[in-house]
Amino acid sequence: MYEAIVPEDDFTSDISMDFSSPIEIANLLQVQGVPFSQGYLASSLKATYQASSFDKALAMGILGADLGYLNIYEKTGNSIEVLSSIRKLAEGLNVGQYFDFETIKRLSLSKSNLDSLLFLSIDSYNQIDKYLTENNRGQLSALIIIGAWIEAQYLATQVIRHHPDHLLRDRIGEQKHFLSELIRMTEPYCSLDRQFTGLCSQLKEISSKYDGVEISYTQGEPVSSEKDGGLVVTQTETSKVEMTDEQLDAIIDVTEKIRNLLIIK
């Protein structure tokens, strides 16, 4: 049982707003015509093998990313199996009430409304994140986010090995900043136990491979849109990633190594 730790800054709430990242990666792959591959999934990760709350939360994030990938490619049979595992993990963490399994299952089987399916899947995770954070269980929320990020990063880096693409390459490079925030979010929990200490070291090992990767941003024109009856102005920007093939190869290798260590039980 973890002692409650509240970070000085609310990193968890801010960073979880980007929780759709795994689905965005999967969508990019599909749009670019990358074929679906069962081999990218964490098939060896079974809900019943996850004994501790640490393992359950991390696995829930990993499988959540896999669920997004399966849903984007409309692989119904596989997604139902992953859904069942996620439900068991959520119940094991006492957050099952926030995961609308039956509705998500129905939408998966019908294949009729992908937007609703993706929204509900993301919303379920956001509700769980909110509940855990508000009830001094932020370390579990952090683990879910880390698991989802690592799996999405693994998916992207595995695909680019066989399907080189400049957009995907840029997305991998842009993860340098997100990973820095992820490490800051996790820092308060690094001394909780050996598992957290090890995970923090693994995140920093991935981060070290981003040394030398440069990202610059250029502001574009503001874009106006309507939301909830009001006018919202969003500042757009474009990014430029400078990353050598050697740096990319190092990121691919370390991501594969650490992700595979995390799914072995």
Order of helices and strands: HHHHHHHHHEEH
Q: Mind describing the biggest β-sheet?
A: 2 strands, antiparallel
Instruction: Give the class from helix and strand content and strand pairing.
Output: mainly alpha
Query: What is the 3D form?
Result: globular
Features:
10 helices, mainly alpha, single chain, 265 residues, two-stranded antiparallel ribbon
What does this structure look like?
The protein is mainly alpha-helical. The protein has one domain (11-263). It is 62% helix and 10% strand. The longest helix has 25 residues, at 138-162. The protein starts with 10 loop residues before the first helix and ends with a helix.
Short description:
Helices cover 62% and strands 10% of the residues. The chain has one domain.
Describe the SSE topology:
Elements (H helix, E strand, L loop, with lengths): L10 H5 L5 H11 L21 H20 L3 H17 L8 H10 L3 H21 L3 H25 L3 H21 L7 H15 L5 E14 L2 E13 L2 H19 L2
Antiparallel strand pairs: 1-2
Helix pairs in contact: 2-3, 2-7, 3-4, 3-6, 3-7, 4-5, 5-6, 6-7, 7-8, 7-10, 8-9
